[in-house]
Structure formats: structure tokens, C-alpha cells
Specification:
The chain has 14 helices and 16 strands. The mean pLDDT is 89. β15 and β16 form a beta hairpin. The radius of gyration is 31 Å and the shape is elongated.
Length: 449
């Protein structure tokens, strides 16, 4: 028979168990809400970092516009801004920082090394003016896709190229070929036969470098077609220039005046005689391009540089699609040379060793001395220049403690004399694009705080 004392101990034990369960429940609830609060705190911190990055990107937009505005104010619109004249990496905006992700077109960066700076759109082939021959030599492209690119922009909405696929093939895809000029490079993805491997190659985040998570067959960045084409390149062609597309001896007065003003009367007479325009017998001389004019004139490269910006092949207010040979990559130069990659590399090497000689397209004649075939290819078309008026600011930003990564691509056009923002694209979805070194630097900075 139980005693009163044992009953009391049994009740106390039951009460203790109940209390312990209540305590454990309260502790569990406390830990749960504490964890939720911690997650919410982290989420809030990430949102704040993201907002800081977005503000940094807006600051970068203003900074890029200022760089180009100063270029115009200094009377050097048309020149590519010197990377040494502005900052392009880890610029602070409050507690955030931003970078301009650039491109190395001189082949001096390692495959995994990210280049920083503004990107010259004039260094690329223009999708709306490039010939089928030029497009065919783009890396990884097929003749069918090259033909389809031309057909896509063909306003007649017909199959203009033998290897191309006309309107019929698009009907099976649920849309029609545009039959108008390209408005963006990304529009290439609608062209029949185009795929992502061809479009971006191994460069999944489109930063011009081979990142640790990217692989290519030859160990290079292998960026695909999108790296080498644009839709923005154009340069102003104000009235008053001397049109050299066709000049008659009877109407050579404007050319003579230009030569006499910038050179001497003696040199002007020698050049006109060399061109066959000093004869009293009426004669008309035609030129395929300013480079063709330079070669036929026999003038010195320095003399040509003094008049080059006053020559034109058309009376249109803008010239669309010329490629800046001072900044074009070897891949783009290969396209202009109809696949002659050896001559393209020869031009890049000359640029790297003679930076002061790039005052006009005349340097091509010096660089290709002894290579008449390549020179003949370049002088046959009016698609070369040494001036650029469109630039991309590919901005990546991170907030405090290396968090809140954002990336936006801007394209500016200065052809009107004022920097105009013509394109904006959010590229944050492509992931980290600042390279391995920047990641390690900013992760270390975060962990050390």
C-alpha cells in the first residue's frame, strides 16, 4: 500500500516532466523564431547590398556619360577614350563598387584574365552592313547561318543568298523572318540555324574571359559570334567634305584646294598628277575607298592623315558599318581580309609595336608592305575607319561586404555630338563576370570584417 510521501513524489515527478516539455517547447519556438529572424536579417542585408549595387550602376552610367562628354568637349569625339584617362575597376560609390568590363582586342590578356574599360562598338562588324563574305569568316559560323543573317535583314523578304533559308522555314517555327535591319545583337537568336554554342561559344557569362566554370576545346575564351558583331556603328559625315568616289579632272578644284590648304602647292600638284587629274584632257577617276585613294595617290602617310577626315565616299549624313581598324580584334580583321588570319595577326602586331602611327587608315599600307593581296582586299571596300562613336559600358557592381552583385550593359552613341544612351540590358542573370581574382579579393575582404 502506497504511502502519502510516495504519492507526492509521483505527482512532483509528473509535474517536472510536464514543465520540462513546456520548457523544451518554448526553447524550440525561441530557436525557430531566432533562426527566422536571422534569415530575415540576412535577406534584408542582401536587399540593402543589392540596392547599393543598383545605385552604383546608376553612378557608373553617369560616369561613363561624363567620360564621353569630356571627350567631345576636348574636340576629340571619334577617338577611343584612352583607358589610362579614366578609372575602370573597383570605383567606390558609397559602400558599393563598380567595374567596366572591357575587352582585349590586342591579344595581350591571358584567357582567364578579365579586361576592364569601355568597349568600342566600332571595332566590330555591323550586322546590317557586313557582306556575306565577311560574315562567313566569323568564328564557328556556318555558311547557312551567314546567309540567313543577310536574309533576315533583307527588306525584300526573300531568300537573297543561295545557302540561306527564306520565309518558308520560319513559318514552321511560328514566326516570320523580320525583313528589316537588326535592332540588337541578341536578335541573332531568332535567325534560323543559330544556337547558343554558336552565339556565345564557351563564354557563358559574356565577359570576354574563360572563367573556371567555363571550358573550351582550345583553352581560349571562345566567345562566339556575339563578341564580334554590333548594330550601332556609324560615324557622322558632315557636309563640306570632298567626295572622292568619282572625280573628274574638270571638277578637281575642291580636292586641289584641300591638298594645298593642308600640304603645299607643290605636293598638291604632285598628288593630282599621280592620280591622273592634272591632265587638260577631260578624265574621270574613281576610287573604291579612302584607302584606295591613299595607295593610288602615292602620298606619305602623315600627309594623308592631315586630310583623311575631310574625304568621303558618300553625301549621306552618316556612314554606317565601318570597322575601326585601330581597335578591331584579330577575328574581325580576319573577316575583313576574307579569312586571311595571318595578315590579320600581322596588323595586330603592327598596332602593338607602332601605337603612334595609327593616325589614319594609311598605316595599313605600311603594315602590309610586301603583302599586296591583303592590301588589295582591304582597299576594295569603303568599310574601314580609325574613328569610333559608339561605346559599351558593361557595368558590374557589388554592394557592402562583396554582396548584392548586379550587372547592366549600356550602349552610348556620340555621333550626334552628345552622348546618347541607345541601349540598356540587365545581365545579372549571367552570373559573376569579374573574374577569379576579383572574387577572391572581395570574398577575402568580406570574411576579414
Amino acid at each position: 500500500m502506497k504511502t502519502r510521501s510516495s504519492d507526492k513524489l509521483s505527482k512532483n515527478g509528473s509535474l517536472l516532466i510536464i514543465v520540462l516539455w513546456v520548457v523544451f517547447g518554448l526553447v524550440a519556438i525561441t530557436l525557430y523564431f531566432a533562426n527566422e529572424m536571422s534569415l530575415e536579417l540576412r535577406a534584408s542585408d542582401n536587399r540593402v547590398c543589392g540596392l547599393a549595387s543598383e545605385e552604383a550602376i546608376e553612378g557608373a552610367l553617369c560616369y561613363a556619360s561624363t567620360i564621353l562628354t569630356n571627350q567631345i568637349a576636348n574636340g576629340t569625339n571619334g577617338n577611343v577614350p584612352d583607358p589610362a584617362s579614366y578609372q575602370s575597376a573597383a570605383l567606390p560609390v558609397g559602400t558599393a563598387h563598380f567595374w567596366f568590363i572591357g575587352r582585349d582586342n590586342n591579344g595581350q590578356a591571358q584567357p582567364g584574365q578579365v579586361t576592364f574599360g569601355l568597349v568600342d562598338e566600332g571595332s566590330k562588324l555591323n550586322l546590317n552592313t557586313a557582306s556575306i563574305t565577311n560574315l562567313t569568316w566569323l568564328p564557328n559560323i556556318t555558311s547557312e547561318v551567314a546567309a540567313n543573317i543577310v536574309d533576315w535583314r533583307n527588306t525584300n523578304n526573300t531568300t537573297a543568298i543561295a545557302d540561306g533559308d527564306g520565309p518558308t522555314v520560319y513559318s514552321s517555327l511560328g514566326y516570320t523572318a523580320k525583313g528589316l535591319p537588326f535592332e540588337t545583337v541578341d536578335e541573332l537568336r531568332l535567325v534560323y540555324g543559330m544556337n547558343m554554342a554558336m552565339f556565345i561559344g564557351a563564354d557563358a557569362n559574356r565577359n570576354g574571359a574563360l572563367d573556371p566554370n567555363e571550358t573550351s576545346t582550345d583553352g581560349t575564351a571562345d566567345p562566339g559570334i556575339s563578341e564580334y558583331v554590333t548594330v550601332y556603328s556609324r560615324e557622322p559625315n558632315p557636309a563640306g567634305k570632298v567626295n572622292i568616289s568619282s572625280i573628274s579632272s574638270a571638277a578637281a578644284g575642291s580636292l586641289r584646294s584641300l591638298l594645298q590648304t593642308n600640304l603645299t602647292t607643290t605636293k598638291a600638284t604632285q598628288i593630282l598628277r599621280k592620280l591622273g587629274l592634272s591632265s587638260k584632257t577631260p578624265v574621270t577617276v574613281t576610287f573604291h575607298s579612302p584607302l584606295d585613294f591613299y595607295i593610288k595617290s602615292g602620298m606619305a602617310s602623315a600627309d594623308f592623315a592631315s586630310i583623311a577626315t575631310n574625304l568621303t565616299m558618300t553625301n549621306s549624313p552618316y556612314i554606317t558599318g565601318r570597322v575601326n581598324v585601330n581597335t578591331a580584334s584579330a577575328a574581325v580583321l580576319t573577316c575583313l581580309l576574307n579569312g586571311d588570319s595571318e595578315s590579320a595577326q600581322q596588323l595586330v602586331s603592327y598596332r602593338n609595336t607602332n601605337p603612334d602611327a595609327l593616325t589614319s587608315i594609311a598605316w595599313l599600307g605600311d603594315a602590309l608592305t610586301g603583302n599586296p593581296t591583303a592590301l588589295a582586299t582591304l582597299r576594295a571596300h569603303d568599310n574601314l575607319t580609325t574613328r569610333s562613336f559608339q561605346f559599351t559600358a558593361d557595368v558590374a557592381a557589388i554592394g557592402p561586404n562583396g554582396r548584392g552583385y548586379r550587372r547592366v550593359r549600356f550602349v552610348f552613341d556620340t555621333a550626334t555630338g552628345t552622348p546618347q544612351l541607345v541601349y540598356r540590358q540587365d545581365l545579372t542573370r549571367l552570373g559573376w563576370a569579374l573574374g577569379k581574382d576579383a572574387r577572391q579579393t572581395w570574398l577575402f575582404a568580406k570574411d576579414s570584417q
